[in-house]
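quick one before i forget lol
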Amino acid sequence: MPQSFVSFGATPYHVSLLALPDAVISTLAGIYDVMNAASLMNLVPEGAPAPFHVEIVGEAEGSLALASGVPINVQRAIESITNTDIVIVPSVLLSESGWEKGRYPHLVEWLQEMHNTGAVLCSACSGVFLIAETGLFDGRDATVHFGYAQAFTTCYPEVVAHPERVLVIAGLRDELISSGASTSWHDLALYLIARYAGATTAQEIARLYALQWHQDGLTPYMIFEGKTDHGDADIQAAQQWLCTHFSVANPVEEMIKRSSLAERTFKRRFASSTGLTPIVYIQRLRIEDAKRRLERTDATIDDISWQVGYEDAAFFRRLFKRTTGLAPGAYRKRFRMPDFTLS
């Protein structure tokens, strides 16, 4: 293996990777391997210590079944840890009832204590649910898996959530770090390696593991789902009609006619109920349909523009990039299944 030219410190940084029953094993195990990669891949100069000493910690030592039922070995109990440099809470799997506060009082208390002693607290994906219970994120920015964003905001309204962002670094000393959906834990691990072991080491580990930074953010991965639980029957009827008629000419005018409401009343109630103006809501539906067509068909971008309701393909291209963060062609390249999988 090629050697890194980073000058590591005399003492490794202690990383506490927290295991709890709700944790997702792929995230926990992946972070463990990548944070240990300098040692595993022989990137440490001869005679120098590894940059990190990573331990899987939990409420008790021994075997612990994670969310999938697969056991992990907890190497050290948190009660024996009075000081650590970095704490990482991996992704957790939420039940249908959502995150239940108060299930892990000892973990929450320990996280607060570690923060007080100077530790950097990190979350991968939905792991921020546990750290947010400490109150340390109140009034601060964070990111979370976009699929859990509404549940997180409901649970922690004091936290400013940005599910479209890959990595959010907050706190007076940059000590509160959250990463977004699923494999954006790659970005978290690479950031920590770059921060504490140097950019050269992070680049080498990214290359060896074929890890990529999510530099376009998470917006391209997010699926639009209009809010429908608002209780306004007239607007719900309009939304239902739009599901199959968003591509028609003048859809806003058609909805207003079908609703029997005055134009100003309809637009006001629609925006109040869905959080979006009628035209923006329609644009989101059209772009979402265009995304599926780019992923699953060979239709040209101009044809897709027309199919979803836009005669002006140039306008469609601009709107698509503004909405998703990617041009239509780049989106197709990113998300289209490889040809060998379709044979």
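fyi The chain has a mean pLDDT of 93.
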